[in-house]
Amino acid sequence: MTNQVHRNGSTKPHFILVPLMAQGHMIPMVDMARLLADRGATVSFITTPVNAARIESVVRGVEASGLPIRFVELEFPCAEAGLPEGCENVDLIITRPELQLRFYEGLSLLRKPLESYLRGIELGGAAVMISDSCHYWTMDVAREFSLRRMIFHGPSCFYIVCSLIISQQNIYEDGLGTSVVPGLPHRIEVTRAQAPGSWFYWPGWMHLKAKVDESESAADGVVINTFLELEPEYVDLYRGAMGEKAVLPIGTLSLYNKDAEIKSTRGNKAAVDERRLAGWLDAKEPGSVLYVSFGSLVLQGPSQLIEIGRALESSGRPFVWVLKGAEASRPELVEWMSEGGFAERTEGRGLVIAGWAPQVAILSHPSVGGFVTHCGWNSTLEAITASVPMVTWPHIADQFLNEKLVVEVLRVGVSLGVKVPTFYIEGEDVVGVERERVEKAVLSLMDGGEEGERRRERAREYGVKARMAMEEGGSSYENITTLTQILGHKVE
């Protein structure tokens, strides 16, 4: 790979992107890779064989477009990490708690393969590494190759700021009760169980947290998939906390996907015929359809799924309900849907997708007027960008704080009132939220009267701001320019 001259006269920047192997982290970084390449950079996207297979259609599209992106498949030594062969993504271990720490510790085993790749290419004079915050070991790789290194944060800036404050002030050191997060422009209360990074306090995880914190403090800056106009006070707070280090909101990254085929295959191959889906949505009234999906990690037991289905049925609303393959195949649910009459009673009004759904395409369709979501940041941001208000049902990780951003700060959501994190373990079958609560929240969101209309209007306003941020001259557009033209200089 030879050096190329960039528009500003410097060496053309080369970005090495190292995402966490989880769909919610990989998807926005794939978007980032294509966006940076489209803006004149060369990109090496680091992945593994199992994860590369999931984005095969995207890889083919990149190859056809001629964008200067190389998808680099590094072997992930599962056996050495103490994992079953092929466990190369977080969603493959989510129901196996005993494997989760091994997975995150095992990420550092990618260091030698990555170093080998970097030695075999010509980096030129303007190389930048952008790695997920969990890849603490990239700090040493960047030093060895004299690279600038940026941290990529998948969650919201609101979440990041709350994380910093809670960690720095040891809010939960002496108790497990509810606390107000100090120093914020809004009154935000969280419990220890809902707190950001609470999993780091599990037995055996603290050493990993220390390494992640050290790696982040040594980084040259941070790239975030959000936009300034969505959470300006929290971007300002985070910039203040980071001092002279760059904090660059460059989202909404999903807006880079304007092609219908790319939208439908973003993240994985869709499990539904896109023409059938589009035709079904086209036949519905604008704003009438409820979309229900819980992302790539959250799993529900059969009894909870049946409660959701009963709520959707009794709501009377048209709906698209996404089930993971493992959920859709559970005998109890299959029997209830078929022999129990759910499929027959909701025929024409409900569409169930078993597997990966083209979420961006669905949310951006005019007939979709609401979203029942787990509050993962990608899903939350995609809904905001599409101007779709939400019913919030957080389960784990950053989702509880994302809910507070949606409901209490932005005021574009209705909360189900879930207070305790939920981790599905294979074989367990509990109901955490009854059908009546789900139906009530759905009707509040989709009908909602005067307050509902104000909620929808706020959602429309944020959608406009999101699109403006990504257009030429917008805040995110300019931050991407900063990445490609200012930070693309070799560390001396």
TrEMBL record:
Pfam families named among the record's database cross-references: Glyco_transf_N, UDPGT
Q: Does Repeat show up as a keyword for this record? A: no
Single annotated GO MF: UDP-glucosyltransferase activity
Ranges for domain Glycosyltransferase N-terminal come to 16-251
The catalytic activity of this protein is classed by the Enzyme Commission as 2.4.1.-
Keywords noted in UniProt: Glycosyltransferase, Transferase
InterPro entries cross-referenced by the UniProt entry = Glyco_transf_N, UDP_glucos_trans, UDP_glycos_trans_CS
Top enzyme class, one word, equals transferase
Known PROSITE patterns for this protein? UDPGT
Q: Which PANTHER family match?
A: GLYCOSYLTRANSFERASE
The family classification in the record reads: Belongs to the UDP-glycosyltransferase family.
Its name, as the record gives it, is Glycosyltransferase
Identify the species of origin: Iris pallida
Recall the taxonomic lineage recorded for the source organism: Eukaryota, Viridiplantae, Streptophyta, Embryophyta, Tracheophyta
